[in-house]
Amino acid sequence: MEFRSSRWYAGNDRNSYIHRAWMRRGLPGAAFEGDRPHIAIANTASDLTPCNSHLDEVARSVMNGVWEAGGVPLNLPVVSLGETNVRPTAMLWRNLAAMATEEMLRANPIDGVVLLGGCDKTIPSLLMAAASVDLPALVVPGGPMLTGHFRGAPLGCGTDVWRLSEEVRAGTLSREAFLRSESSMIRSRGHCNTMGTASTMACIAEALGMTLPGTAGTPAPDSRLLERSHESGRLAVELVRQGRRPSQVMTRGSFRNAIVTLAAVGGSTNAVVHLLAIAGRLGVDLSLDDFDRTGSGVPLLVDLQPAGRHLMDDLFRAGGLVAVLKEVEDLLDPGAITVTGRPLTEHLEGAEIWDEDVIRRRADPLLPDAGIAVLRGNLAPGGAVIKPAAASPELLRHRGRAVVFDSVEDVHARLDSPDLDVDETSVLVLRGCGPRGYPGMPEVGNLPLPAKLLEKGVRDMVRVSDARMSGTAYGTVVLHTAPEAAAGGPLARVRTGDPIVLDVAARRLDVDVPDAELNAREPVMTGHARPVRGWERLYVEHVTQADRGADLDFLIGSGGDHVGRESH
Ligand code: FES
Fold first, then answer.
1. Is 255 left (phi over 0), alpha (psi -120 to 50) or beta?
2. Ligand 1 center to residue 542 CA distance, Å?
3. Which residues span the domain enclosing 7?
4. In a domain? residue 253
5. Distance between CA atoms of 441 and 432, rounded to whole angstroms?
6. How far is the CA of 51 from the centre of ligand 1 (A)?
């Protein structure tokens, strides 16, 4: 078969001479003879993305596998996003990373790609890029870190930061003790060890069929990750030879499998926007309501923080994702294939649960219905989401008086004021934090509770926003409200004192104010000052709402791998 890279390297003219000559830096001449697939390793390793800093080592194992299978591996550093470092929020840059990677995959003489990601936005941006170019591709998730301990108890990355910092604010933990926990939080290389967004998206990538089955959740320092990376390199060459593309793997059935997986593992709400964005790139018909339809009735089987107790290392030890999926095999689409060419369900043969405290049996779930609920109503005509597994059951049906904040800065300025008119029945409403308003839809939807309520022992309240929430966070938090306030959604017209009505069972989120009165109010659309240049300006002008994945409108749909013109 003729490989795509031959369009650069084959022939005896000046241009093929140039393409070959400049690449002859240690590559054997046989690399250009046309029978070896050229495999890019899209590598998000970066010192400023500490969760991915070990990916160069992973890349070396992938390279060995590619060589062994007769391919030519090529390291391709791509835009990397460190969730804890990048301001104003890594989500602002997800589409930039996806667009830059898409363009570099298309522009270069490659036949296939291995995608190395880990930290929250890296796997979504890589999958969006691969979906758009539609060259043979597979993901190697970088894996979670090992469990750290503080005072003899395990520490969950992120989740315990939120919990301990609230304890400091409540006066039940000293600041000194809190700061001492810092050096124990990150025990090893790898991404957050809770079922946060990084762990969720690794599981989702596998459920979509885009990893070598059995890879997701392998801890970053575990030698088996390098073994799987080597095998993934071999498989990448095979994928090219067989011509299997992401559009053949990530079908509607695969997305259904991803939604079942999301519920069964108690995954992050962020997966909703990422899956909608990836589906959009592929032209797969996926809507917000599919999450509710497909996820409803799926049991929560994994007892991991933030919804439960354990951590990713425990999940791997207990049998891993394949053992979880084996329990819900009947809910999976048997026709949805993986990068191996075989259905996901075939790869579950022999999967076993080794610790039923971590992975529950179907007959004994943590929750019978763990799907992410999609809410609608006069406050969220475009939809909003809530993760019931991370919420307080008694708050899932609630009516309370709104206490409205116009921005994150407004929260910081007023939340702990003794004069704030709030009690435990109030509903905290935060606006101006959607894709366009912030811009970038930050993870601030789980806004902290007012200090005076924490001191009274209150640990959860209903919160409503157009923001996202960290996958490591918890609480009765309604997120992704669409349209956002900055796009003129009803959230912009809510006032402090309005009754907010949440009814998760009925899938409703309303403000109990007559429509005529609500519509007559002047909307508060005070987002961040409108960006005047660069990516932020492009983003604000083109970003879609959360119910469409917060992608840029002109990136929806596949661009394919074709490049029409030579460079010389
Ligand atoms: Fe990187 Fe959590 S900060 S995965």
1. alpha
2. 27
3. 1-33
4. yes
5. 9
6. 6
Residue 498 DSSP one-character state = -
Q: How far apart are the first and last CA of the chain?
A: 26
Q: Is the same domain home to 236 and 284? A: yes
Q: What is the pLDDT of residue 375?
A: 98
Binding site membership of 83 for ligand 1 (Cβ less than 6 Å): yes
Residue nearest to ligand 1 atom 1, measured at CA:
119
Residue 189, ligand 1, Cβ within 6 A: no
Q: Is residue 362 in a domain?
A: no
User: From ligand 1's centre to the CA of 120, what distance in Å?
Assistant: 6
Least confident window among 181-190, 502-511, 514-523, 525-534: 525-534
196 lines ligand 1 (CB under 6 A): yes
Residue with tokens 């007892």: 303
- Considering the domain architecture, whether residues 266 and 383 belong to the same structural domain is answered as no
User: Looking at ligand 1, which atom is closest to the CA of residue 82?
Assistant: 1
Q: What is the pLDDT of residue 526?
A: 67
Same structural domain for residues 10 and 134? Answer: no
321 plus 394 within the same structural domain: no
The pLDDT tens digits of the residues spanning 262-300 come to 999 999 999 999 999 999 999 999 999 999 999 989 999
pLDDT above 90: residue 389: no
Please give the single-letter amino acid code of residue 552.
L
